[in-house]
Amino acid sequence: MTFLAGVVGVLVVIAGAFYLTGGGGDDEAKGSAKSPTPRATTNPDLPPGVKCSGDSCTGKDAESMGCSGDLVTTAQTATVGNTVVEVRYSETCKAAWGRVTQAAQGDEVQISAGKAKQSGSITVAGDAIAYTPMVAVKNATDAKACATLASGQKGCTE
């Protein structure tokens, strides 16, 4: 009986080793490779942290999509009353958005490029800056930003 228990024990060890090593390496001998682990895909042409480009940016927030900071320029500026309205542009993201500064509660900003339009406004007393979501553009000159102040005064970038 002891002999039989020893044989069963040896067979269990051999079967365990066979199982843990993947069956003796037959996969490698046949030249097959393991399937890669699926990963989230990103556009390899975009710098790290940038999450959109062109049409995929339309309607999205420039900061949360990684399009602001060092990647943005002020392409056009106009003054409406004391409020400054700007077209902000990211070449990397191929998108523009509007911004008003020195603004007051009730002031609005709109960005347009072709038929695409987005708007933002100052809704909280004491805030002085508002942004629009982005619109896709090929060039900064394709976008126009307009401000409509709570006083009714209006003005746009060229």
Poorly predicted segments = 16-20, 24-42
Rounded to an integer, what's the Rg over CA atoms?
A: 30 Å
Structural class: alpha+beta
| Number of DSSP strand runs | 9
Count of structural domains: 2
Distance between the termini: 98 Å
Beta-strand residue percentage: 25-35%
Nearest-integer average pLDDT? 82
Apparent shape? globular
**Can you count the helices?**
2
Q: How much helicity do the residues have?
A: 10-25%
The description of the largest β-sheet is: 5 strands, antiparallel
Order of helices and strands: HHEEEEEEEEE
Features:
single chain, 158 residues, alpha+beta, 2 domains, 4-stranded antiparallel sheet, 9 strands
Please describe what this structure looks like.
This protein has 2 helices and 9 strands; from the N terminus they run ααβββββββββ. It has helices spanning 2-20, 26-29, and strands at residues 73-80, 83-90, 95-101, 108-113, 116-121, 130-131, 135-136, 144-148, 154-156. The strands form 2 sheets. Strands 1, 2, 3, 6 and 7 form a 5-stranded antiparallel β-sheet that branches. The protein starts with a helix and ends with a strand.
